[in-house]
What we know:
The protein is an alpha/beta fold.
Amino acid sequence: MSIAGGMPEAVSRAVSVDATALQVFVKSSNQWAARPFADGEVAAYRAAARKARLHDHTLAHASYLINLASPDPALWEKSVTAFTVELDRCEQLGIPWLVVHPGSHVGTGAAEGIKRIAAALDRALVEGGGREAGVLLEITAGQGSTLGASFAELGEMLRLTKRKQRVGICLDTCHALAAGYEFRTADAYAQMMSELDREIGLARLRGFHLNDSKTDRGSRRDRHEHIGKGCVGLAAFRLILTDPRLREVPMVLETDKADDLAEDRMNLSALRSVL
Length: 275
């Protein structure tokens, strides 16, 4: 949900579509700088989220400018600093998880990029001291030199970080399909989840982005589509939504919508129709 008008407005928008989970940005997603919270904004957000019973089922999404795998020392430092600020803002707001795209190695190779991601996570999490907010690494579609398009790569990032208890993953259904994972039948879904458990551990799956996909399996293209109108299909969403292991995992939509949020209502209705 948009945070236009202040953080509490995102909660109001979520309530207006009968949402039971929420994702927000904690600052402008396309700027490095973060405006200070207005007087009373943090307290008002916390109160609204708790009243709406969204406080435990909210994710924040990190800025798209951040590249924790960057081989450029200046950009890596800038990314880590910005990421740490966003974690601090999550802590202030009481948001438990900050979702981030792992980053791009920009031609330097996956192994080196993964090492830089782990180092960035350690820096950001250590500098936060006793902060409770944690990080969710999001599976990617695998475009170009982006990292995190496989459970093996995500698992390696987790293995290398020293703050494992505060790092998990977020599974985006559009990205997973584009990256080559098959989960549209019961057998395929079971195999995918078994691989995830083996490489990462199901307990570390702490968030979902429920998006259909304009492109089919293995396309390596990140193109979100409305629920049931793309290549993922309702059968796959039914398998996810009826998996008892995932009952308490926050699941959010990242689909296009107009200001009246009609598309959110449509997509939520489509998801609930499979239950």
